[in-house]
């Protein structure tokens, strides 16, 4: 399974996404609000248009794994609960309770309707979740459900009866979810995850493989209805008059214009053709000093294809390239405002009791922000010897696959130049359209790839993806001891025991370097002052406009 890729880097990137990190304090449940009220609306037409450089890929909840699809889904569908402006609020569920042992969550659904007027049922959630977990579906997001009883065993094929999974519709208005063990992060997972929306079974049966591929093959129950999707051109959403909380939705229409060229997009903003730009590059922040920014929830790292027979199967070659990177300089030149250098795989914005988990359980690559050329050359020398080569020039071709966006291209060119200057290592760039680039990543057809992913709610979000055979293990790296520590963490219930096991696992992956943490990206964006209550979320909806309004 592949973790949610954040395009906020391109837009960002990739998905790559959004908003200041929200935290959970163990073992208390996060506060859940009933709803959020929108501000007063003037006589102005309630239409909001924003520009972005990337299209969404699918509206199939089970198959979504990137940011722009998640952004649209956040507006046109509704989960049991949702994350809005840093707070967990009730969604289709009007209430929920937790058993004394902390393992059984019972959600009571409100009287809510799909956009065509049919009632939303607890079964629609059961069907959606189990469809995602079904191995035949081929979802890349199944690990989002790992804390649920038997979910992992089901998607791994260890059990074949979905009735053994802890997801049960007890009646039309009651959904019961049973966990493997107490999980202090479960409610935040449910609120922020991009795959916890309901699905109408009749739509899947009618459209089969084309489900979610267009306007007619999808139906939602959220604040907006998708009314037009001209791929690579525009996405149009209109207010859903059947939405249970429609009185809090003030916008009548939202349009995303898909414009790959950032200069063209900036020109449209200047001319008033768009009210906001989803993200702007570091270069453009100098041209628009009134830009806004946010940070949190995403990590960008290099994934080295470490599979058997690949040149980066050699650990010292991986470490040589990682040590050679001047993260600080490249970050300052290319990355959006607010970005920070990263030296671990756990997001420092994940906190408990107001203290970053990375401070209580520290780990680091040990690489200075400016790089370490001396050690980089030593690792390269060892790699050349181990590969049976006589010089750097004999290295086989190395291909860096990058998404075709200004930010990704700039990062790729900066890294390529750095490796050539410091190590005399030639790296070829293959710049591909976003869908093809992601396809190359998922199929292992790359040597180096800049990954930008949601760091999730809990500290194991990225780490557990690098176990043997895991679909999120883009590098194909294998380490049995690492897997044992990850499995040990998954079997614990107390936070300290979980973190000690994760700390040991993280030390291994940072030392062997199948991945090279680079940056915790910020997002710089533009928005006119007359657009009120526009927020950037964490991962379920990068740009949260569902309660926005226009006041000129």
Could you characterize what this model shows?
By secondary structure, this protein is of the alpha+beta class. The chain folds into two domains: about 40-250 and about 525-550, Dipeptide-binding Protein, Domain 1 (Dipeptide-binding Protein, domain 1), CATH 3.90.76.10; about 300-520, Dipeptide-binding Protein, domain 3 (Roll), CATH 3.10.105.10. The strands form eight sheets. It has a seven-stranded mixed sheet, with helices on both faces. A six-stranded mixed sheet has the order 17-23-16-22-20-21. Strand 20, helix 12 and strand 21 (about 430) form a beta-alpha-beta unit. The longest helix is centred in the C-terminal third of the chain and has 18 residues, at about 405-425.
């Amino acid at each position: 399974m592949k973790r949610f890729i954040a395009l906020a880097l391109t837009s960002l990137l990739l998905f790559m996404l959004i908003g200041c990190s929200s935290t959970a304090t163990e073992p208390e449940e996060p506060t859940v609000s009933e709803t959020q009220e929108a501000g007063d609306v003037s006589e102005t037409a309630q239409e909001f248009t924003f520009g972005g450089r990337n299209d969404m890929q699918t509206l199939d909840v089970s198959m979504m794994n990137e940011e722009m699809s998640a952004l649209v889904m956040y507006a046109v569908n509704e989960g049991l609960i949702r994350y809005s402006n840093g707070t967990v609020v009730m969604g289709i569920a009007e209430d929920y309770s937790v058993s004394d042992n902390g393992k059984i969550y019972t959600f009571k659904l409100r009287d809510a309707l799909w956009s065509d007027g049919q009632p939303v049922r607890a079964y629609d959630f059961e069907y959606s979740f189990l469809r995602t977990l079904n191995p035949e579906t081929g979802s890349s997001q199944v690990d989002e459900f790992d804390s649920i009883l038997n979910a992992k065993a089901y998607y791994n094929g260890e059990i074949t009866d979905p009735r053994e999974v802890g997801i049960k519709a007890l009646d039309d208005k009651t959904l019961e979810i049973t966990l493997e063990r107490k999980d202090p992060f479960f409610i935040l997972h449910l609120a922020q995850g991009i795959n916890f929306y309901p699905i109408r079974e009749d739509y899947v049966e009618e459209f089969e493989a084309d489900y979610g591929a267009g306007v007619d093959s999808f139906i939602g129950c959220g604040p907006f209805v998708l009314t037009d999707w001209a791929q690579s051109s525009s996405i149009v959403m209109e207010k859903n008059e059947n939405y249970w909380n429609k009185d809090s939705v003030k916008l009548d229409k939202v349009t995303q214009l898909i414009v790959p060229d950032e200069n063209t997009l900036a020109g449209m903003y200047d001319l008033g053709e768009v009210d906001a730009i989803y993200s702007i590059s570091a270069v453009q922040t100098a041209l628009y000093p009134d830009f806004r920014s946010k940070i949190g929830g995403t990590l960008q790292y290099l994934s080295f294809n470490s599979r058997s027979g690949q040149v980066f199967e050699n650990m010292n070659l991986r470490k040589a390239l990682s040590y050679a990177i001047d993260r600080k300089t490249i970050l300052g030149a290319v990355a959006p405002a607010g970005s920070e250098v990263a030296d671990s795989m756990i997001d420092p914005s994940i906190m408990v009791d107001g203290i970053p988990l990375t401070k209580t359980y520290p780990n680091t690559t040990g690489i200075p922000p400016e790089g370490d050329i001396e050690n980089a050359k030593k690792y390269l020398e060892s790699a050349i010897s181990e590969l049976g080569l006589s010089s750097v020039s004999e290295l086989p071709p190395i291909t860096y696959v990058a998404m075709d966006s200004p930010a990704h291209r700039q990062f790729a060119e900066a890294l390529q130049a750095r490796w050539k200057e410091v190590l005399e290592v030639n790296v070829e760039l293959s710049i591909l359209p976003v869908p093809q680039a992601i396809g190359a990543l998922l199929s292992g057809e790359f040597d180096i790839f800049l990954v930008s992913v949601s760091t999730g709610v809990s500290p194991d979000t990225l780490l557990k993806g690098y176990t043997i055979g895991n679909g999120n293990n883009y590098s194909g790296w294998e380490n049995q001891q690492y897997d044992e520590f990850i499995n040990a963490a998954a079997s614990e219930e107390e936070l300290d025991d979980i973190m000690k096991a994760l700390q040991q696992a993280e030390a291994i992956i940072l030392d062997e370097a199948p991945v090279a943490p680079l940056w915790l990206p910020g997002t710089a964006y533009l928005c006119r002052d007359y657009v009120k209550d526009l927020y950037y979320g964490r991962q379920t909806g990068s740009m949260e406009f569902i309660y926005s309004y226009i006041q000129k």
